[in-house]
Fold:
Amino acid sequence: MSSQIKTGKVYLIGAGPGDPGLVTVRARELIETADVLVYDYLANPKLLNWARLEAERIYVGKRSGLHSIPQDEIEEILVERAHKGLQVVRLKGGDPFVFGRGGEEISELQADKIPYEIVPGVTAALAAAAYAGIPLSHRSYSSSITFLTGHENPEKQSISIDFKQHGKTQGTLCLYMGLGQLPRILSEFRAGGMAGEMPVGVIQWATLNHQRSVYGTVDSIVSDIESAGISTPAMIIIGEVVNKRSKTEWFEGRPLMGKKIVVTRARDQASQLTALLESNGAEVIELPFIEVQPDINPQLITEILAGIAIYEWIIFTSVNGVKCFFDLFYKAFDDIRCLGPMRIAAVGSATAREIESHHLKVDLIPSKANGDALVDTFIQDEGIESIQMLVVTGNQNRESLVQRLEAEGGAIVDTLPLYKTSKADLSRQPAAERFRKEGADAVLFTSSSTVKSFVDQAAALTLEVDAIKPAYGSIGPLTTKSLKELGLPVGFESKHASLDHFVNATNEYLKS
Structure:
C-alpha cells in the first residue's frame, strides 16, 4: 500500500510597513508556529524573533539595484518546502497584493496544488500618511486616493502607466517605488496639467524610528529630497492634503527621535528597555553577547513528558526555556490540562509574561530576577521538603539553583535542559557590524556583567573612522564603578536604578 506524503501549506502574509506593532494578530499567530519563514528586505527582522528557535529562516530580500534571489527561485522554495509537509510563512513588506507580486506566487502555488492562505497587511501608503500626519482623504480637498507604482516589470518594453492622465486629479496620489524615476514622472504630471505648486510629501522608512520626511511642491521636491538626503525606500504623496497634515509631529517629534542607542543585554532580557527607548523615538541596536540554540535530549524529553503530572512545581528560569518547553509540550499533548495540577514559578517578570501568554497563572515570582532570590523565596514562603519539582533551564547557572533547592529546601528536583547559551561571535553579528560602521549616540549598560562583556569583545566592536562616537550610560553606582575600573568614560548615570529613570537620564543627556 502506497503511503501518502502530507502536503504543507503556504501563508502569504503582509508584514506591514515596518513597525512590528502594525502586524495583524493572525500574522503573529502564524509566524509563531511556522516551520519555515521566507522573508523580504522590507519585512522587519524583529518579526523573526516571534518564531520558534528551530524554524528555518530564508532571506530572499530584494531592493533597488540588488536582487538576491530571482522570483522564480522564491516560488520554487515555497513549493518545495510545502511538498515536504511544512507550514511555510511568506513575509512580504506591506500588503502582499499591493505591488508585492503576491499574485505571481499564488499562481505558482495553484499550479502545484499547494494549499495557501492570504493574510493582508497595512500597505505603505496608509502607514506613511498616518505617521506623517497626512489625511489621505479630506472632505474639502480629496475624495479619491490613487496608488501608482514608479517601478514596473523591467522585462516590459514600455511603461504602461500614463502619468499625464493623473495630472488633473482632484484627489491624492500615492507613488510607490518612484524615487528613482521621480523627475520624469513629475514632468509627465506637469504635462498633464498639474500645477507646479501642488504640495508633495516624501516619507522615508515610514513607521520606523529612523523615519524621515521632507515636504515641498511638484517644482521643488526633487531638489528638496537631494538636500535632505532622502533615499529609498520612500513613499511619495501628492495632493492638497499634504498641506493639511497635523501641526504636531506625533511620531517624528518624540524626544529620542533620530538618536541611535545601543542596548547591551541578551536579546530575551532587553525587550523592556528596548520598548521604552523605542516608545521615546530611539533607534535601538541590540548587541547580543550570547547566542541561544536548542539543545534537546529526546529520551529525557519523552521520560519527563510521560510523567509530567507527578510534579508539584515547575520552575522556569528564562523566556527561552518557556518557549522551548511549550513547543515540545504541544507536540506531545493537545490539551493544556495535561500539565496536571502543578504550580508554576518564574525567575522574573519577563519569564512570567511568557508563561502567562499560554493563559497560565504564575504562582511565584521572586522580588529580584535571579536564581538565588527564587530559592530564598521558596525556602521562606513555601514548604518544599520532599516536594517533586521540575526545573526547565539551559546549560548555564542551573547547578547552584538545583543544589540549593535540594540541600536547603529538601526538594526532589529533576532538571530539563532545553537549550544552550554560548558567547556570541560579534564579528559575524549584523547588529555589531552596524555598530562598527555607524556608531551610536549612546551605549547603555544595565549591569557590571554587560560592561565586562562589552570590554571582552571590544576587538569586534571597534568603530570605523566616520562612525558616531557614543557616550556610555550607566544604570547606577555599581555599573558606573565597573565602567571606571575597566577604563570606559562615564557619560551619564541614572539617578535611580530603574529602566524608566535610565531612559529619562538618556533623554536628558542627549538633549544637552
Notes: The mean pLDDT is 90. DSSP finds 16 helices and 23 strands in the chain.
